[in-house]
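Severity: low
Component: inverse-folding endpoint
Summary: output formatting inconsistent between runs
Steps to reproduce: submit the following C-alpha cells with default settings.
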C-alpha cells in the first residue's frame, strides 16, 4: 500500500512540473517593449558604438573619419531555427541610407534582346524619375558597374529574377535589391518607402543573425527608434518569436558587440515547432487532377507535388442503377 501511494505522489509531481513548463512558455511568448528593453541602456550602447568606431578610424589613420559607417543588431537565438535561407525585410521609421551613399536602380528593358542598346531604357527611366521629382536615385546602370554602389532598388516586375542573376556576393554583403513599383502614380513615395527598409538573412547554419539598423551619421534618437522597431518586428516574425531570442547586441562593421538585452532562459522554454519554418512554395506547387482515359475508363488521376499518384475510379450510371435495384429488391424480400 505504501509503494502505491509513493508512485501516485511521483505522478502528481510530474504533472505539476509539466503544467508549470507550459505556463512559462506562454508567458515568455509575450513581448513588452517597455518592460523587456531599456531605452536608456540602448542609448548608452549607441554612444559607446559611436565612440568605438571613431577610435578605430583614428587608429588606422583613416582620412574619411566623418564617412557614414553601418551599425548592426546582432541577434542570437536560444534554439537554431530550422528553415531554408530567406530574407526578412523590416520597414524602419528612418532610412539607413546615408546622404553620401550611392543608390542604383535596376529596371525592365524597353526592348528585349541581348544585343539591344540599353541607352534608350536609361533615358526613359531618368525622365520618369525627374517627372516624379525623385532625386535619391543616383544612377540607372548596366550590370558591369554594379560594384560601385551601396544600395540597390529593382523594378518589382523583375525582382524575382535578380537574386540568382546577381549571385552570392550580393547576399553575403546584404546588398540584395529592394523592389519598387515603377508603375505607381507616386513614384517618389515608393522609392522613399523602399529606402527605409532593411533586411536580415535568416538561415539555419548558426544561432546568430545580423541586421543593419542605421549608420554613424544618424541622430542617436532616430537610431533608437529604428532599434525599437526592429525589436518589435523580431518579436512577431523571428522564428520562435521573442521566446527564441537569447541576446541582442549593437555593433559596427569591425567593432565589439555590446549587449542591450540578454536572457538565461532554458532551451526547453522554446517550442521546437515554432522554430521550424516551411519553405515558400510557388503557385504551381499544388495537386494536379485530370481524367485518365488511356487504359481504364471513368478513372481520374491526382498527382501530388512530391510525386504521389492517386487513381480513383468513378462508378458508371448503369452500375449505380443496378446497385439501387439490388438494394430495393432486398428490402422488398425482407
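Observed output (run 2 of 3):
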Amino acid at each position: 500500500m505504501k509503494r502505491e501511494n509513493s508512485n501516485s505522489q511521483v505522478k502528481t509531481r510530474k504533472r505539476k512540473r509539466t503544467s508549470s513548463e507550459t505556463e512559462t512558455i506562454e508567458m515568455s511568448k509575450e513581448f513588452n517593449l517597455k518592460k523587456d528593453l531599456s531605452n536608456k541602456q540602448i542609448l548608452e550602447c549607441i554612444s559607446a558604438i559611436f565612440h568605438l568606431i571613431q577610435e578605430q578610424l583614428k587608429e588606422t589613420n583613416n582620412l574619411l573619419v566623418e564617412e557614414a559607417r553601418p551599425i548592426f543588431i546582432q541577434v542570437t537565438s536560444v534554439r537554431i531555427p530550422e528553415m531554408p535561407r530567406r530574407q526578412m525585410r523590416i520597414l524602419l521609421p528612418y532610412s539607413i541610407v546615408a546622404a553620401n551613399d550611392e543608390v542604383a536602380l535596376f529596371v525592365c528593358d524597353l526592348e528585349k534582346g541581348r544585343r539591344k542598346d540599353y541607352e534608350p531604357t536609361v533615358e526613359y527611366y531618368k525622365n520618369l524619375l525627374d517627372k516624379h521629382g525623385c532625386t535619391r536615385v543616383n544612377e540607372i546602370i548596366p550590370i558591369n558597374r554594379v560594384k560601385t554602389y551601396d544600395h540597390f532598388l529593382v523594378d518589382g516586375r523583375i525582382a524575382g529574377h535578380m537574386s540568382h542573376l546577381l549571385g552570392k556576393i550580393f547576399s553575403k554583403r546584404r546588398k540584395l535589391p529592394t523592389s519598387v513599383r515603377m508603375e505607381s502614380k507616386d513614384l517618389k513615395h515608393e522609392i522613399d518607402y523602399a529606402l527605409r527598409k532593411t533586411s536580415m538573412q535568416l538561415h539555419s547554419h548558426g544561432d546568430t543573425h545580423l541586421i543593419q539598423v542605421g549608420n554613424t551619421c544618424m541622430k542617436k534618437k532616430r537610431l533608437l527608434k529604428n532599434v525599437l522597431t526592429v525589436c518589435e518586428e523580431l518579436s512577431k516574425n523571428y522564428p520562435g518569436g521573442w521566446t527564441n531570442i537569447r541576446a541582442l547586441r549593437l555593433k559596427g562593421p569591425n567593432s565589439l558587440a555590446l549587449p542591450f538585452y540578454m536572457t538565461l532562459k532554458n532551451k526547453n522554454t522554446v517550442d521546437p515547432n515554432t522554430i521550424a519554418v516551411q519553405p515558400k512554395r510557388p503557385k504551381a506547387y499544388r495537386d494536379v487532377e485530370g481524367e485518365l482515359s488511356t487504359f481504364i475508363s471513368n478513372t481520374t488521376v491526382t498527382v501530388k507535388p512530391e510525386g504521389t499518384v492517386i487513381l480513383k475510379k468513378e462508378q458508371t450510371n448503369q452500375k449505380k442503377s443496378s446497385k439501387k435495384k439490388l438494394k430495393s429488391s432486398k428490402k422488398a424480400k425482407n
